[in-house]
Amino acid sequence: MKILMYHYVKESVKNLPFFRYLSLVNFKKQLDYFEKNFGLVSFEEFCRLKTEPKFINVLKNKILLTFDDGLKEHFTLVYPELLKRGALGIFFMPSLVLEQEKALCVHKIHYLLGRYGGGGGELLNLALELIEPSMCENENAYLFEDYYDLLDDEESVKQFKLLLNYNLKEEFKEEVLSALIKKCGLSEAQIYENYYLNREELEIMSENQMLIGSHAHSHINFLNLNAKQEADEVRKSFEILSFLNPALRTFCYPYGEFSRNSRAILQNLGVDFAFVSLDEYKKDIDEEDLRLNPLTLSRYDCNEFPFGKASKG
């Protein structure tokens, strides 16, 4: 079984000329391609894997579709398409956005880059003006340099992401991004508006055999947290999402990475399956993975397959 990862799926984003997303047209073409060549995993088929890991041998090369970040288009564009095809989607929700009307830091970064692009490094320079050396930590940044090298962003975009996602200490991210948004003449409300799924949409999807999983509470990289902080992130998220009462408890690691504490924390909280998205784990899933590593299941990015190339604007 192949597990695929998606983020943004849009028709167009005319007010964000540099925003990267998979077009709805290509998303549909990609699903057509998967149906023709592999088949798509259904709700019933995936649920059987919890108690019958050997059932994966029946599924063979079928595709399981997963969607990160709880984005609005997952309800308006993706969900109707999956429903038509009888396919399961697992949607990973960062629960903080159900509690406060404010975009997550990672999505503020996406929005700023989508609006202004690399801009010859102007956005990066603005950020550097706001950041003191003492606000940065570098010990984890090297883990992600290779990841950003694989992207086809221009250098200033890569450096902007690396600085704000990984070098800047967690406690300063909100402050720096809020100041940067103001410098650009934007508002937090402007970014948040129509960005995320709401409770009603989650309920409708869950009632129609889609699975809603946790993407932690505030989408913080687990490598930047101690064991207690990480456990709190996971526990709080599942508490907030408990109104959905899903058939399986699923989890997706923020930024695709897990710590040495992650598996024990998820196991203690009764998580059935958890998903990563790092190159060194990339592979098709087999019976052995389900039996031995159900909390570190590997995913492919949708852009590795036909019709998966990102569009802009």
From TrEMBL:
Question: What keywords is this UniProt entry annotated with?
Answer: Signal
Q: Name one GO biological process term.
A: carbohydrate metabolic process
Q: Which residues form the NodB homology domain?
A: 199-273
Which residues does UniProt call coiled coil?
Answer: none
GO function terms (MF aspect): hydrolase activity, acting on carbon-nitrogen (but not peptide) bonds
**Top-level taxon:** Bacteria
PANTHER family listed in its UniProt record: POLY-BETA-1,6-N-ACETYL-D-GLUCOSAMINE N-DEACETYLASE, PTHR34216
In its UniProt entry, what is this protein called? Polysaccharide deacetylase
Organism whose genome encodes this protein: Campylobacter upsaliensis
Q: Name the lineage.
A: Bacteria, Pseudomonadati, Campylobacterota, Epsilonproteobacteria, Campylobacterales
